[in-house]
Amino acid sequence: MNVEISFPGLSSTDGVYLTWRPIPATIRLLEPSASPNPVSVRISSKPNNVGARLAFATTLTHRGTDTLDLVLAADGTPVELWVGGKFNPPDAQSPSPASQADGDIAIEVHELLAGTIDRRLGGRPAMIRVRKNAETLTDGERDRFLSAMAVLNGRGTGKFVDFRDMHNAAAYPQIHTNMSFLPWHRAYLLDLERELQADFPDVALPYWHFDHPAPRLFQPSFMGVSVSGRVRFSDTNPLRNWAGPGTTAGVLRGNGVGPQTVIGARTELQCLALSSGPNANFQPFAVPLEGNPHGPAHTRHNGTSATSWIGDPTTSQMDPLFYLLHNNVDRLWAKWQWLQSLAGARLDDPAAPASYSTAANLHFGHNRNDTMWPWDGLSRTGTVFPDGSQGPPIGPGGGLAASKMTTAPGPKPTVASMIDYFGRHGGQPLAFAYDDVPFVV
Question: Are 320 and 251 in contact, with CB atoms under 8 Å apart?
Fold first, then answer.
């Protein structure tokens, strides 16, 4: 007698990549018993070496338990359950209790006889794959991420070219200084992360917690050290062959920011207090957030676009550090959504009327239900924005990359599809999470 654990969209050999948000699964007897009697089982997790655990339930909830007892029909009829990572916030003494490697945690199933655990009936390896503070990554996690980025870059000729070219000067009014700044960049990061995971499925995009010191991040073995405007990497760092457009080899970055915090940038607590409480609103949070801390995190590196890519929004995307910077901006949004939901504001609900604008004076691509350039395949050329600039032409890259772990957001994401990233309000999750932001129904 054995059991089979299945997940929607996954074959029996596909890897299972979980976040704090549970997803549905089914379990059934793989070899129907000759006896007509049902079989009682206990489902639990086999932890990894940092004590990560899975949580199980029969409904979508953040109150899952370490074990779940179910009764399986003898004829093999599947029974539904929900599985997710068990959240514990990281701190200075203990990093995120999530996975550190592919398959380092597992779903375990044992038979229950008279309430006592008996023989093992089967299981399935899994990974709690979440976006972590770059400072807390193990050497293995760091090196896999760097390898994934290097493969995507392909010495300047890889798929990364699409991401480089969709965040340029022509696109600026489509993606900055307006209501879709945060949703657009969430989609942008998700698209890049999924492209990384196509070859390195155990990789999640880390973030640069730029109001904390980052001595490990700004090392030759990670994001490199700027010397006279050019980044130096170690001989074993896969980014040593990074290439920008044309014949530009290496990374241009000013020397202003290194292991220290970003001077003049709002702290996390200051960001979360920009608009708070049950009457919190998106605009008074998002608009100042783009100016600070997002702005100083870019510009404190010193230099112009010719000497420091990351200091100019039309060239910053060519520096791999950009994606860790913006991942922290997105994390601040995610944490703000969670904290305000605890106070009664529905700021992760795309239908909440006071949260996200549908004002008539916003041009297409910034209203809640608009599709977003460039994934929608629509050219904004000819569109005149309030500052008098023109919209960008059809961009590279096609639709947003798919994930086996979810059907959301589809190839043509809308502004609204980026808001409820955990799927708390009836939609599918986007299959990413941060190490310090829990899922709560």
Answer: yes
Q: Which two tokens stand for residue 256?
A: 């202003």
Question: pLDDT tens for residues 197-250?
Answer: 999 999 999 999 999 999 999 999 999 999 988 999 999 999 999 998 875 679
**Can you say whether the dihedral through the CA atoms of 198, 200, 203, 208 is positive or negative?**
negative
Name the packing angle between helices 321-342 and 181-199 (round to 10°): 120
List all residues 6 or more positions away from 319 whose beta carbon is below 8 Å from its beta carbon.
231, 251, 252, 253, 309, 310
In whole angstroms, give the CA distance from residue 408 to residue 295. 30
Q: CB burial class (10 A; 0-12, 13-18, 19+) of residue 247?
A: exposed
pLDDT score, position 35: 73
pLDDT of residue 96 exceeding 70, the answer is: yes
CATH class of 3-128: mainly beta
Stretch 325-331: mean pLDDT, rounded?
A: 98
d(CA 405, CA 323) in angstroms, rounded, equals 22
Q: What is the pLDDT of residue 34?
A: 67
Give the DSSP letter string of 312-370.
Answer: STTTGGGSTHHHHHHHHHHHHHHHHHHHHHHTT--TT-TT-TTTS---TTSPTTSSTT-
Locate CATH 2.60.40 in the chain. Answer: 3-128
Q: Look at the pTM and tell me if it is higher than 0.70.
A: yes
Q: Report the percent of the chain where pLDDT is more than 90.
A: 71
Cα dihedral across residues 13, 19, 20, 24: positive or negative: negative
Distance separating the N- and C-terminal Cα atoms of the chain: 36
Domain at 134-418, CATH homologous superfamily: Di-copper center containing domain from catechol oxidase (1.10.1280.10)
Cα four-point dihedral sign 340, 344, 348, 354: negative
Helices (H) and strands (E) in the chain, counts: 8, 11
Give the model's confidence band at 355: pLDDT under 50 very low, under 70 low, under 90 confident, else very high. Answer: low
| CATH 1.10.1280.10 domain span(s) along the chain | 134-418
3-class SS of residue 189: helix
